[in-house]
Amino acid sequence: MSIALTANFVVKDGMDKEFQAIVLDLAGQVLEKEPGVRMYQLCRSQTLSGQYRLFEVYDNAEVLAAHSQTEWFKALGPKLGACLAEKPMIEKFDFVQA
C-alpha cells in the first residue's frame, strides 16, 4: 500500500537559497535512483516566511525504509541541519481508497 509523508521545515533567516539547493539536489537523486518513489516535491509557504513542506509518496513501506538507508539521504543531515531553525516535523499518511 502506498505511503505519503510530509516533512515540515522552518529555515533560518538568510538560509533559504542554501536550503532549497540542498533539498532540490536530494530530490533529483531520489527521483532518479530510487524506484518506487512517486513524488518528492519541495514547496515554499506563500504566507509564512522561511517555511517549507516536502511532499513524498512511496509505493510501500519497503521503499520508504530503503530511502532512509541511501548514501545521499544519510549525507543530508549535517548540511540540512545547518539551515534549520528547528527540528523538522515528519508525518506519515496512508492512502485512503474508495
TrEMBL record:
Ranges where the ABM domain occurs: 3-93
Molecular function in Gene Ontology: monooxygenase activity
Database matches in Gene3D superfamilies: 3.30.70.100
Domain of life of the native organism: Bacteria
Keywords carried by this UniProt record: Monooxygenase, Oxidoreductase
Record-linked Pfam families: ABM (PF03992)
InterPro entries xref list: ABM_dom, AI-2_Isomerase_LsrG, Dimeric_a/b-barrel
Name assigned to this protein: Antibiotic biosynthesis monooxygenase
Organism: Sphingopyxis lindanitolerans
